[in-house]
Design goal:
Elements (H helix, E strand, L loop, with lengths): L3 H6 L10 H11 L6 E5 L5 H9 L2 E6 L2 H10 L6 E5 L11 E6 L8 H7 E11 L2 H10 L5 E7 L6 E2 L5 E2 L9 E7 L1
Length: 185
């Protein structure tokens, strides 16, 4: 039986992916688990949906670009607890009583009105934002809803050489995006 990491190595790549460092932080800080119901939007190649499905009871993921949907459909076909929707989440979220919603979208604040209705009380909304401009808009928009900002962070990863001598490798995975953790009041 293959591990999740081995399965992910076989995934077809399309758009940029959520890296393990960011997926791990999302899982750790939201506290999602084997009983959790999660919605993921901006599926892309399906990497984050796969990480979430590895530990959650149910993952519904939204993708509105046909070429990405087809890649994700292929990649996520082995995950029985993932429901992939070819749908624009900016038009609404059907699922209710969710533990978490993850958004890897250009304008995640356009989902806030739907997320507010779909999340459980104290449920998490997590936005992945590559630019500071997006972060500024999101921080203004959040004030219009029954949400509380928990944390804004970015995670940097640097590997170390251990063969001839112990030292940091010259290259590292630096900024991939800001992770914004929000809770529903």
């Amino acid at each position: 039986m293959k591990t999740l990491v081995e399965k992910l190595r076989e995934f077809k790549r399309g758009p940029a992916i959520i890296l393990p460092k960011d997926a791990g932080l999302i899982i750790a800080l939201t506290g999602i688990n084997k009983d959790s119901k999660v919605v993921d939007a901006g599926t892309g190649s399906g990497f984050l949906a796969a990480y979430l499905a590895n530990i959650c009871k149910e993952v519904t993921t939204y993708e509105n670009r046909k070429e990405f949907f087809e890649i994700a459909d292929l990649n996520l076909s082995g995950f029985k607890n993932v429901k992939l929707k070819f749908r624009d989440i900016y038009k609404g979220i059907k699922e209710k009583n969710l533990d978490a919603i993850t958004l890897d979208l250009k304008e995640p604040w356009k989902v806030f009105k739907y997320a507010e209705k779909s999340l459980k009380s104290n449920g998490f909304l997590v936005a992945f934002l590559p630019t500071i401009n997006q972060l500024e808009i999101l921080l203004k928009e959040i004030k219009k809803y029954k949400f509380r900002l928990v944390k804004v962070t970015e995670l940097l990863e640097r590997e170390w050489e251990t063969e001839d001598r112990i030292r940091p490798k010259s290259q590292m995975i630096a900024h991939t995006g800001f992770l914004v953790f929000i809770r529903k009041l």
